[in-house]
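TICKET: design request
STATUS: open
ATTACHED STRUCTURE:
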């Protein structure tokens, strides 16, 4: 006879006695308590959700080592958020590198422009020096004659 059929035909006092004295009753009582405890726990965990997934034994062992005796769910949350922060930091660094590369390109252009200006000034100065040397050479020729 099923425990549920028995439950419908007895009063609450008899039910409590059955739950405490019979093996099926104790098993049912334990299942009811566990179910009620789970429901209370799920209802009270604001901002939390139960996740169930398979993980390799090797990964589980590594997670336990990382946890160092702390709850595995807290360790897993810390790893997830640390990974998120590292990813955000990497993105920030990539943006910074892109900005600095652009600034570097602009500075190279300015340097090239300054170099072109300096080259033309150097060429002009060299031209003046050459002319001055030619004048001196001519003056030396006249003085020797």
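STATUS: resolved
RESOLUTION: sequence designed for all positions
ATTACHED SEQUENCE:
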């Amino acid at each position: 006879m099923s425990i549920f059929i028995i439950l419908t035909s007895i009063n609450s006092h008899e039910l409590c006695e059955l739950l405490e004295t019979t093996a099926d009753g104790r098993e049912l009582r334990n299942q009811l308590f566990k179910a009620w405890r789970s429901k209370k726990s799920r209802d009270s965990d604001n901002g939390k959700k139960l996740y169930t997934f398979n993980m390799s034994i090797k990964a589980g062992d590594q997670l336990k080592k990382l946890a160092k005796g702390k709850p595995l769910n807290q360790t897993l949350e810390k790893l997830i958020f640390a990974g998120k922060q590292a990813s955000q930091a990497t993105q920030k660094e990539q943006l910074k590198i892109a900005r600095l590369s652009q600034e570097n390109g602009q500075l190279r252009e300015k340097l090239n422009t300054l170099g072109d200006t300096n080259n033309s000034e150097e060429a002009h100065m060299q031209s003046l020096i050459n002319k001055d040397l030619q004048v001196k050479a001519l003056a030396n020729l006249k003085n020797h004659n």
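CLOSING REMARK: Residues 72-134 form one domain. Residues 114 and 138 are 36 Å apart (CA to CA).
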